[in-house]
Each structure stands twice: as C-alpha cells, then as structure tokens.
Specification:
The protein is an all-alpha fold. It contains nine helices and no strands. Helices cover 85% and strands 0% of the residues. The model has no long low-confidence stretch (mean pLDDT 77).
C-alpha cells in the first residue's frame, strides 16, 4: 500500500466518525436509540464535574487563604491548575469508558438499527434480560481489555522517536475495534477473523480510532462520541465486509 493511499484511507476513517454522527441525526429511530447513552453520559459528566469542581474550589480557597508571599501563592495556584487539568483529562476518558460499559445494551441496539438501516437484513428483536446482561458483560470485558492492552503496550512509548507513535497508534486501533465490536460480535466470528478483517484496512481503522480519541479529549466531546462512534464502527465493518466479497 502506497503512502498516498494509506493517507487517503486514514482521512476516510476520520470522516467515518462524522458520517456516523450525521446518520444518527438524519434518522429519527437512530436518534431515539442514541438518546439513552447520550443522557447517561450527561449524568456521568454532571456527577464528575460536580465532584471535581467542589474539590478544586476547596483547594484554591485554601491556597488563597495562606499568608504566603504573592509569588508563592501564584506558583501554588499554577501547579494546582495543572493538576486539576490533568485529573480532568483523565476523568474525561474515564467517564466515557464507564458510560461505554453501562450503555453497552443501548449501543448494541443502535448498532443493530444502523445495520438494519443500511442493509435491511435484520429483524427487530424483543427486549430480553439475558441479552441485556450479556451486552453489559461484553462491554465490561472490552473496556477492561482496552485498558489492559494500553497498559501492556505502554513500554513501547519509551522507545526513542517511534515509541510514542507506536503506543498512540495502538490505542487508536483498540478504540476503533472497541466500537466495531458491536457489529463483529453479532457475526460470532473467531478473534482471528475479526483481526484479519480490520487489518485489511488498517489506515482506515487507525483514522477512526484517532477521530474517536480526539473527540474524547475535547471537553464535552464525550457526550457525542458514544452514539457517533458506535454507528461509525458499524459502517466500518459493513463496508469492509462488502469490499471483501
């Protein structure tokens, strides 16, 4: 694969996230499916924001009440701001991962509806407790595997020059797989077959993962990432399946 072709496919993967969001906005039944994970993320953001905001307020109030020279207080405030910013960044990703686990059954239904919209091949299935429990369990498993693999591959970041690139790109690939897994799991394929399908279009997979990562890093971006990424992951699998025929 040429560099130009790989770059084209990477950009196509990035745009896939926006296509997923646009598809949700275009169809009422997809918007209805996306509403529950969206509201769930709003609640988690509200709870987390309240906790972080309260802790930050107490910290800054304590610093400003100290009888230290102004330059010492200024340095402490700057350090506290950087600490809060770092914690907030980690919390943004944590909230999305927690919402991903809790909202797994709703996201799985959104993925099914997306495939039904695109292909019209699936019949609507009634709600079942066993399906709900299985979806939550699968969501927990995928999220734990994602965090675990990122931890295992973290030593790659210490390799000079290419290390950070390898680690970040592996994270992008894992994110794309996580949201494509709703569709892949319905196929009941072996892990090797899933891997082979996604590897066949690795620049597009990385592009989708990069777009998801960037949106997660944007304040309040996590509110929209779950539905859009789920639909985008579904579109990715459907397009790769069609291409492989």
């Amino acid at each position: 694969m040429s560099l130009l072709r790989a770059l084209h496919d990477f950009v196509a993967g990035v745009l896939l996230l926006f296509r997923g969001g646009a598809l949700v906005l275009q169809h009422q039944h997809l918007r209805q499916r996306a509403l529950k994970p969206f509201l769930l993320t709003v609640v988690l953001y509200g709870i987390g924001g309240g906790v972080l905001g309260g802790a930050a307020y107490e910290r800054f109030a304590l610093l400003l009440s100290q009888p230290d020279p102004w330059y010492v207080i200024l340095g402490q405030v700057a350090l506290a701001l950087m600490t809060v910013a770092g914690i907030a960044t980690v919390a943004l990703f944590a909230f999305v991962l927690v919402a991903r686990v809790i909202a797994s059954p709703f996201l799985a239904l959104l993925s099914e509806d997306t495939e039904r919209q695109v292909r019209g091949q699936l019949s609507d299935e009634p709600f079942a407790i066993s399906t709900f429990v299985n979806d939550v369990g699968r969501g927990v498993g995928h999220s734990l595997a994602l965090v675990g693999l990122l931890g295992v591959t973290f030593p790659l970041s210490f390799i000079p020059v290419i290390g950070p690139v390898l680690w970040v790109s592996s994270g992008w690939g894992l994110l794309a797989y996580d949201f494509a897994s709703f569709t892949l799991d319905r196929r009941h394929w072996a892990l090797k077959k899933k891997y082979t399908l996604l590897r066949s279009a690795w620049p597009r997979v990385l592009g989708l993962g990069a777009a998801i990562f960037m949106l997660m890093a944007v304040p309040l971006g996590g509110l929209f990432v779950l539905p859009a990424a789920t639909v985008a992951g579904t579109l990715l699998v459907l397009e790769l399946e069609e291409k492989s025929l």
